[in-house]
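Newbie here. two chains, one complex. Structure please?
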Amino acid sequence: MSSSAAQQPTPQLFFQTINAYQRTESLKAAIELEVFTAIGEGNATPSDIAKRCSTSERGMRILCDYLCIMGFLAKQDQRYSLTPDAAMFLDKRSPAYLGGTTEFLCSPMLTDGSKNIAEAVRKGGTALPDEGTIGPENPVWVKFARAMGPMMAMPSQLIPKLVDPQANQKLKILDIAAGHGLFGIGFARNNPQAEIVALDWAPVLAVAKENARQAGLTDRYSTIEGSAFDVEFGSGYDLVLLTNFLHHFDPPTCETLLRKVRTALVEGGRAVTLEFVPNDDRVTPPDTATFSMMMLISTPAGDAYTFAELEKMFANAGFTRSTIQQLPPTIEQVVISER
Amino acid sequence: MSSSAAQQPTPQLFFQTINAYQRTESLKAAIELEVFTAIGEGNATPSDIAKRCSTSERGMRILCDYLCIMGFLAKQDQRYSLTPDAAMFLDKRSPAYLGGTTEFLCSPMLTDGSKNIAEAVRKGGTALPDEGTIGPENPVWVKFARAMGPMMAMPSQLIPKLVDPQANQKLKILDIAAGHGLFGIGFARNNPQAEIVALDWAPVLAVAKENARQAGLTDRYSTIEGSAFDVEFGSGYDLVLLTNFLHHFDPPTCETLLRKVRTALVEGGRAVTLEFVPNDDRVTPPDTATFSMMMLISTPAGDAYTFAELEKMFANAGFTRSTIQQLPPTIEQVVISER
């Protein structure tokens, strides 16, 4: 863009943004029609892709062009190919396939919350009934546990390497709000002496237990059914995992939980928090910082907390020291807090 | 981004795109709450903006951060300011305010069409009933005429300067599917000897006539009520305007209309077409090329035609020569076709 073009205001950003919902819907359609899988299999022309996906050629051409514009496909000489991201995450035959996460990410519980953002801004919290996603035993979390595993595969492998790099000592680990259970399972896979206690609502734990069984972990895997705010944790934990959990609650609620976490830890024990932690400006890094809007839409008082805010919550709960680490290539950060 | 980070596939684009609907909804909320106007008036902190917009401070802080990430606001020392685009197009006090266009751009007629893009791809045309937006006398076009004027203000001033730069000769102009009427009115404003005949469905023409009256053009402004495909155009036109019209129809339908247009033109007369004309690759320029998806969603067989396709339609209809010109800073192009 020339500098004079950049200086003149244009309605382009407005137009792009007001139509951004078509990006969501086009990507959903492409996943539903298995367009990425079809192209991964070698279909490259609108005609061949359309045949493989049982659609019109014209509709497929328009969809594939749109997918090019969004950056999921490349096009040369009227032939489409997958970008590396699409090949890795959107071809059904890839072990890192993420298409199933739309079951959760596009569930009405989340999308309905965004239908009235003005009201959420007025209120300062979700406009959904029954406390949004954090309502008691909200079934969306079973959907989450079933659908979001693939999205968590990468961080669940990275975190144990960061926190337990030697992997040569007995570790007792409490996995709070375990969901799919992959974080605890990741620690158990990393360290054959790690023993996991997974905590979540019973219907969600069914998914975690299934995943643990598939990982061959039954003898080192036990569970506590219920809400993390209500049940007894037990004690003697070397690590307590708080993965994508604190962002649902306000700081006083988090602090109450963290005090309980601290009591469950052994001397020298650590809390391991995975979170979307924006910089102090709250607008960078952009993908991390947008998570705050997701929490406004879907929870009464949750947020994407800065490291300073998390550090203060842990300090108020009695932890001596917190440190933060990036977890590339994910957009999340890990905070490790010492008892 | 470092080159190694760029090479490693990440789920970021997937995540951004699947959540893109939150961009639409957040911008709509900000317009509804008059956030841009509030900041334009000098409110800069979350607390002051929240007070002016009658919202919670927490919700406003999260919304404003999200607007920063999207590029509509800037933030420094916890104070927000408008970007030049937002000041020009989203502050209600600006004459170029575009907020009202959401009445059309986010009308259920358009957003409902995108709820089942997979079905539109299968069919090769809109999944909406009654031919989508081109159904007979579809009331969405009255909404269009009332809401979209501000978006068309800029092109409606630029095109007359391009087509009638001297503005010193009598011109009889047919404005097909006039809508808000601004294009014809632009020619009449540019040239005191220009006489406009505006054609559209009666309820839409009411808006065009109102705009013509406000521009003081009653004596040089007449109308033809009905569908461009059915009514008599009359004859002796120096110019026929086809602004944002051809994209709703398939090429044979366009050619039928263009033959009729040609007949209505004088020797040496010209058809002036404003369109979203992508390059031959159909994926650049991106903002222009995305318009094809809008047509798939909302019409049975419309498209964003390339210049080669438009040129062929005009040639098949008997026009001797077509030329294309960019219309910066808009994302549209003007095709001038000689009888």
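Moderator note: The CA atoms of residues 188 and 194 of chain B lie 5 Å apart. Chain B has a mean pLDDT of 94. Thread marked as resolved.
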